[in-house]
Amino acid sequence: MKIENTRHLSGMKCLLLASAILSFGILPAANAAIIYSGLQNIAIPTTFDGVYINIDNAATSSTTITGWDINPFFGGAGIANSAAFQPARTGTANDDPVLNFAAGDLISSTLNFSSGFGGSGDPVSYLGNSPGQFAVGQEGYLGFRFTTDSSDGPYFGWMRVLFTADSPGGMIKDWSYDNTGAAITIPAAATPEPSRGLLLLLGCLTACFRRRR
Fold first, then answer.
1. Handedness of CA 123, 121, 111, 40 (dihedral sign)
2. Measured in whole angstroms, how far is the alpha carbon of residue 205 from the centre of its chain?
């Protein structure tokens, strides 16, 4: 009986500790700082319509939808963007080639962004093996600046992509942005690392449950 009471008290302590961590803000708020889409793996059709994507809510469609941000088509050999979503380019014209970035690169206001609706221009200009180009069939990163459906922003972010030259296999894998308006660095791993608070919470709960055994 005494052992069961001890286990019950240990369980209560674990719950109280978890509650304290959450209450005092050791874990980041869901609506603060880095926003990550989760792995999406959205296929890019080899059609002129392609796929329309709203990065606020990850909604997709083969036709225009409210709040769409980016519209890759022909497997990624073509890209259209809304006025709210501006990919980083070689220049400031809305059809200048989009740029490919790598892990460790900083996406910020120092890059070139256009305004209004835009396109990717000639696919030969951004698909290839030269610096800043997207190698066909290999992962790369778009850098972007965008405003949300509720007109918040502008925010800076990255989008992990795989483009083809009008063949199957093109994909939008995931994306992330900082909703404070700060610059964002593309991480070495595509998925943002867990916060220190989350790791602390998991560690405490693991220790508690080990004691209860």
1. negative
2. 29
| Residue 44 DSSP one-character state | -
Q: Which amino acid is at 167?
A: S
What are the φ/ψ torsions at residue 65 (nearest 5 degrees)? -130, 160
Rounded CA-CA distance 131/195 in Å is 33
pLDDT tens-digit readout, 162-213: 999 999 999 999 999 999 999 999 999 655 544 444 444 445 445 554 555 5
Q: 206 by DSSP, 3-state: which?
A: helix
In three-state secondary structure terms, 202 is helix
pLDDT per residue as tens digits for the range 90-142:
999 999 999 999 999 999 999 999 999 999 878 779 999 999 999 999 999 99
Residue at token pair 């220790």: 207
* DSSP conformational letter for 97: P
The total number of residues shown for the chain amounts to 213
* Chain center to CA of 42: 13
Distance CA 207, CA 213 (A): 10
Task: Name the amino acid, one letter, at 210.
Answer: R
The single-letter DSSP state of residue 186 is: P
Q: Where are the domains of the chain?
A: 2-27+195-212, 34-185
